[in-house]
Amino acid sequence: MPKVSQEHLDARRQQIVDAARARFASHGFARTSMADIVDGSGLSNGAIYRYFKSKDEIVIAVCEQGTEALPTALTAESVAAFLEHVRARARDTDHARLVVQIYAEATVSPALAVVVQGQLAALRATIAEMVPPRRSQQADEIAEAFVALCSSYSQQLAMRGDVDSAPYAAALMAIIEG
Amino acid sequence: MPKVSQEHLDARRQQIVDAARARFASHGFARTSMADIVDGSGLSNGAIYRYFKSKDEIVIAVCEQGTEALPTALTAESVAAFLEHVRARARDTDHARLVVQIYAEATVSPALAVVVQGQLAALRATIAEMVPPRRSQQADEIAEAFVALCSSYSQQLAMRGDVDSAPYAAALMAIIEG
DNA sequence: GCAAATAAAACGAGGAGTCACTCTTTTTAT
DNA sequence: ATAAAAAGAGTGACTCCTCGTTTTATTTGC
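YS: structure for the whole thing
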């Protein structure tokens, strides 16, 4: 095949990332082989290595694309709705399991750790901005605990299947209100 | 060598578990080979398989031995001291990294998931008992969030190196006090 | 026909697990 | 009591396989 549009190239790359993410989420990183990604993507072995230099590069791409959701405001309703969103995503796409896998790999792969740390810092910054003025002095501390507890809810979902979100909603509000 | 005391057998088994834990903590589960455990334990390849049927069995043994610490009371001082203990252990023995590895593996290995779920449930039960009478109605919910946030602090330590424990201490007390 | 892109086979490394064997202690038979 | 036999602990070379990557051949559009 001759030269092809940039959109086409992007689409192909996306196919690979999507296949990899699905497989990482359902089987974990270590138990996903290149052959699995080849099969899942519908492309060939050679094609994959045209778009990614190595398996590790694919992991990083998956991680970079995996933007975490956040509540839109720090109100009880908004937080509760957000937790339900996390719960639904864990149920429907194994997203929680994927996140746990990425975190584990990040503790062992410096390149991935950089990406993950950056994403976590961005999440904390976003939350810190939402902290009500009354507590803006502790905005950073609140954001730290808030984001940590959110990611922990995701982690619990990954390990225990389904977990009621109510205790987490209550705890998050307690953290915000002090 | 002929028949040998039970203590001797236990000691040998412990050698293997210790070597495996150290390596899992520093390099992760997937990046630890049987050869690594052989070298670290000072035993031979064959000897290891006399004590454990497979690598997965070793992981489970490591997990079963890894009891998590807990605060002795739900007071500000006790909780703060506990978090510092977690922090110190992460720094000195890479324990936080080990936990993250185990959690990730548990999402993918049913046998390990059973062990991990049991341990988490025990931790929640212990915390629930400590909840002050004033809030005993919500003891279970509080314990759920409390344990989750503790394990999240550990997770953050694993991924980000060192993290101040103060925000977590404040958040944990906020959860307890509502 | 040519260049780009893909597919498939081949390769080399490394891993988990096995097995035939050794060596030492315990048991047994004389 | 002593020597032969049995049994258990430990060994490490070896096997078989999987995996990530590279190389080679083929196809495809212009």
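YS: worth flagging: The radius of gyration of chain A is 18 Å.
IM: good catch. Also The longest helix of chain A spans residues 6-27.
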